[in-house]
Design a protein that fits this description.
Structural class of chain A: mainly alpha
Number of helices of chain B: 8
Number of helices of chain A: 1
Shape of chain A: rod-shaped
Strand content of chain B: under 5%
Distance between the termini of chain A: 71 Å
Number of strands of chain A: 0
Oligomer: heterodimer
Helix content of chain A: over 70%
């Protein structure tokens, strides 16, 4: 990289890191809310069926 | 006759499944453009006569900077629409765009610092272009902080929209800063009025990477939008069916 390796790989590395991290965190958020909603529904149906 | 009723998709319950079908398409496009863009960036584009191999940073710096501004405009547009028409999906859209916009602004600043150190001899200067981009980053952070500080989501949407709309004034300041002020940051290499001042292959690499960043931003924002829709509409009937 003609003496620019640190800067070029630093830039591309920072992009790669953040652009991989963000979708993973968002996926985690989506599955967390789905899990919570399923639990709420289960609790509701338990309340209804076994009062 | 209108074949598609666009207003149908203005409600979260019909947009939620549509977003779910669109996300994989945008991921595939992001990967394809990203792979092609990286290949051109490293194997096709020639070494720059003045900046050597260091100039290759522009292949991520320019797309990230463009996206930071485009996402801000989109965020302000949706927030403004939500404020004017009181449509809840528009405000959720603005909320979903903010973190990705902040990420792009951060990447623009980080990659810019990696460019500044070898070329200018400094990681940072208080130049008009750099400072206005930093302000853009703070506007995103401010928007997110303001929204999460207000408990009632509809009030948070309104306050956020006012902030987002006022902040729009910063976008043309960033864009024209290199012509309005004497900045250390170079002028734009791509312009609507004249031919680009760079090799064709360099331009191609930059455009492919820009498309990859576009597709990535759409995919990740739609993914976040789905989470926001479920979080905010959790007590409505459609959410119960959406999980089946």
């Amino acid at each position: 990289m003609g003496g620019y390796a640190l800067y070029v790989w630093g830039s591309f590395g920072a992009c790669a890191l953040l652009l991989v991290m963000e979708p993973l965190l968002v996926k985690q958020r989506l599955s967390a809310v789905r899990r919570l909603l399923r639990r709420e529904r289960l609790a509701e149906s338990l309340d209804k069926n076994y009062p | 006759m209108n074949l598609i009723n666009w207003f149908r998709y203005a409600s979260p319950q019909s947009f939620y499944p549509l977003a779910g079908r669109m996300i994989p398409l945008f991921w595939i496009l992001a990967l394809l453009f990203g792979a092609a863009g990286l290949w051109v960036s490293f194997f096709v584009a020639p070494t720059d006569a003045q900046q050597g191999e260091g100039y290759r940073i522009i292949f991520v710096h320019v797309p990230a900077s463009w996206m930071s501004m485009v996402i801000y405009l989109a965020m302000a547009f949706w927030a403004g629409l939500g404020l004017a028409l009181n449509t809840r999906l528009s405000s959720m859209m603005a909320q979903a765009l903010a973190p990705t916009g902040a990420l792009m602004a951060a990447l623009s600043l980080i990659t810019g610092a990696f460019w500044g150190k070898p070329m200018w001899g400094t990681w940072w200067v208080w130049d008009a272009r750099l400072t206005s981009e930093l302000i853009l980053f703070f506007l995103y952070v401010g928007f997110m902080a303001l929204q999460s500080a207000i408990d009632d989501p509809r009030r948070a949407d309104k306050a956020g929209a006012v902030l987002a709309l006022i902040g729009v004034v910063n976008v043309p300041i960033i864009y024209f800063s290199v012509t309005w002020w004497n900045t250390l940051h170079q002028g734009s290499s791509i312009n609507l009025t004249r031919a680009p001042s760079m090799a064709q292959t360099m331009l191609l690499g930059m455009l492919l990477m820009a498309l990859a960043f576009w597709m990535y931003s759409i995919a990740v924002s739609l993914l976040r939008l789905r989470a926001i829709m479920l979080e905010r509409e959790r007590h409505s009937e459609w959410v119960k069916h959406a999980l089946e």
